[in-house]
Structures are given as structure tokens and as C-alpha cells.
Amino acid sequence: MRFMMLMIPLGYESAPADVQLDPERVAAMMRYNEALKDAGILITLDGLHPPSTGARVSFASGAPVVTDGPFAESKEVLGGYWMIEVDSRAEAIAWAKKCPASANEIIEIRQVQEMSDFPPDVQAAAAGFDGLKR
User: Could you say which DSSP state residue 90 is in?
Assistant: First the structure.
């Protein structure tokens, strides 16, 4: 089972584009990342720049509308993610609990939808889309 662990650093929604990282915290996180890799469960991971450097494309009017960050209505934003492959939700939670997160960080765990999770008609509608790396 694949799970995405989403890092939600509280306050990151208002971080400046040139946010400075604490080298000690980065080193601790790299040790955690190495543990995920050594356990053979890490698929990929990335950190994300603050929302002040991002853009949103919305479709409420039927046509795409681009809004540059930061986004005033944001209360929680993603700071990064890990994609892991483990045997269960409980195992994903156990790994998230080992993260050296600070008091202002939350990890949300979401299982990835596999094609086999869907009924045959949905699988048929998506058939032939094999162009992504995994």
C-alpha cells in the first residue's frame, strides 16, 4: 500500500519566499529520511517552497483564473511530503510518529488510490494511461 505523508508546518502559509531553514532541523530530518530509505519503504520525497512563491488556478467561473501567492484564505499549507510503501495504515502511522517534527508541524497520512480500488467501469475509463513513472 502506498501512503503519502504530508507535512503541514503551521505558520508556513505566511512564510517569506526566502525563508531560512535551521541546519540542525534539516540534519535531523535527513536522518529520518535516511531511515525511511534504509527500511526500503521510501518511494520519493520533496520539500515545497512557501505559498508566497506559488500560484493557484481556480475554475469557479468555468474558465481558469490564476491567483499568485500568498493566499489570504489559507490556514494550513503543505511544506513537503514523503511517498512510502508499507503493508498497512498502522505501519504508515508508526513511521510518521518517528519523524523529528517540531511542535508546530503536523503530518497528515493519506493512502494513495490504486486502480484496483475502483470498480471495473472506472478502471476501463482510465485504461491505457501508463505514461507515469512509478
Answer: H
